[in-house]
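Changelog-adjacent note: as of this version, every example in the card shows the full chain rather than a window. The one below runs 269 residues end to end.
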Amino acid sequence: MGVLGGMPAQSQVLIPHIPQLEEERLREQGLILAQEAAQLAQFQQFDLALTRARLASQLVPDDPNIWGLVGTLYLQLGEADEAITALQQALVYDRENSGVLFALGTAYFRAEDYASSIEFLQQGLELQPEEPGALFDLGNAHFMLQQYDEAIEAYEEAFDINDEFWPAINNIGLVLYEQGDMEGAIENWQQAVEIDGTQPEPQLAIAVALNAQGQSDQAITLGTSALALDVRYADLEFLRQNLWGDRLLAEARTFLQLPTVRETLAQIR
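Full-length structure tokens:
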């Protein structure tokens, strides 16, 4: 009786510890999977990374960093709605994570919800104001809502923080062109080229503007050189994705139809 009577007491002591040990083991596995996912993402193996990150989020459902990783991987794969869901889950556990807020701003921009994009980018900037990339994204969201003054202000703030950040100056040019300030736009694009002369976008923008002013020879020389750097810029939809507005796109269409430009494109392609 003494031996048998002692067994239930011993089991009652051990049983409460078994679920805790199992939970700790699963959590450890989840953190390992998350680390593997982050490493795969560094090598741009986003599909494999997402599979591991999603499993990690199931094993460690209260970790905002893992949910943030899931969200950014969905963004990399172009799945904005799924990214928003995961990033919102990250906010449940950490409302003060500027990286998650910035990623949400990007995700809502991709989903074409520009007002929400601005909201989350501004929340992130309250926590981390010296972030030129987020300010640039904020400018883009304002630009899409035709809030031109706010867009330029955000781009200028980004450039004030990093005076090598040519995209901010380039996009000020895009805004000014839509406002009808062709000379101001060209000046900004020229400044962008001075910062980084290897970038085709500001060079092509200058060429398109010069052609619209009747300076075709100079425009063709500059524009064909830009297209040789990256032929994707001959695609009007690609230009639209890079926030070229209606006015500049119309002029780009005219420029790309010039016989010399078409001949150059045929050779490049």
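Structural remarks: The CA atoms of residues 14 and 118 lie 53 Å apart.
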